[in-house]
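Audit log entry. Action: structure prediction of a protein-small molecule complex. Ligand: NAP. The ligand was supplied as SMILES and no pocket hint was given, so placement is left entirely to the predictor. Protonation state taken as written. Sequence taken verbatim from the request; no trimming, no tag removal. Recorded inputs:
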Amino acid sequence: MSLLSFVYSQLFVEPPIPDHDFSGQTFVITGGNTGLGLEAARHLIRLKASRIILGVRSMEKGAEAIKLLRGGMGDTSDACSLDMFELDMEKYSSVQIFAKSVATLGRVDGVLLNAGKVTQDFYLAEGNESTLTVNVTATFLLAILLLPILRQTAIETGSSPRLSIVTSDRHVESNLPEWKESNTFAALNDPNRAIMDKRYHVSKLLQILMARNLAQLLGDVQERANQIIVNMLTPGMCKSGLTKDLRGLFGAQIAVMDYLLARSTEVGARTLIAALAQGAESHGKYMNDGRVQESALSSFVRSEAGTLAAAKVWEELMSQLEHVQPDIRAIVCQKD
Ligand SMILES: NC(=O)c1ccc[n+]([C@@H]2O[C@H](COP(=O)([O-])OP(=O)(O)OC[C@H]3O[C@@H](n4cnc5c(N)ncnc54)[C@H](OP(=O)(O)O)[C@@H]3O)[C@@H](O)[C@H]2O)c1
């Protein structure tokens, strides 16, 4: 996506208000206590979802969010069961406990992997730079751990549950030169080489590469009814708490862009709902402005190098996650 297309989208395209009917369906939203996740929950309540689970790292903030949802929506919210499970994506053990709790729900029709962070401070979490852990490795650990309950839902309801990953149009800022190194994560985890003002972009590019790879491994949904649909989306630049701690020139640039271009959080959240409502044609695809638009992906992602990079980094990701969840590859490959 060129800078011009980005600015055009921000200023002149307003994704439509979702009108899908989610009656009887259960959803999980990570990072659901604020920002886009919270607004997505508000849309889902309006669209008659039966149950929403917010993944929150602070139970106090989660309780506040549920109060806000209940308070702001009157009777509409009474028909929807709202709950929260603790989730700290800087800790794999928390991701594993969260996934086990979600498995007890018995039915999950859609997951918004929305929790994400941007920071200029380099520190490690679970052996990786923390942005990579939260946005990439823990996100895909969770994605994979949720596959069994999504598969079960597909079989029991005869539907195609959605696994929607909230990425970013800013992935275009990186071509991941580290993918050619013997160990890409090791290169990215070197504090002497990390350019933290660019790290968020790298993490969002990795999310897209990993999501495409996962979708490919799960197979062609269009050929097989009632399969999990994995799609990814950018909400565009939106008002939220995401960039509040950024400092220096980078922080100032983002603040100016935010002032001039950002969508409201509610409008941005429409794109998350659009991904949950999208059909099999969105499997493995990228959504921009609330619709499938692969041309908005960077040319690197769409190139042969991008496909090779995705496969190589996926292998590294699996090798890392095997230490945490030894059967991780088997979960991905499990057939129904
Ligand atoms: N806003 C934008 O312009 C924009 C553009 C493109 C993509 N996105 C993506 O949209 C998603 C939502 O972001 P947002 O804009 O709504 O930002 P936000 O208001 O900062 O919300 C981020 C959410 O992620 C949670 N989170 C952060 N670190 C976490 C961790 N270690 N464990 C569990 N949860 C964690 C936050 O929890 P706390 O409240 O506890 O911090 C919060 O609920 C992110 O993936 C972001 O990359 C946003």
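Audit: result stored. The longest strand covers residues 51-56. The chain has a mean pLDDT of 95.
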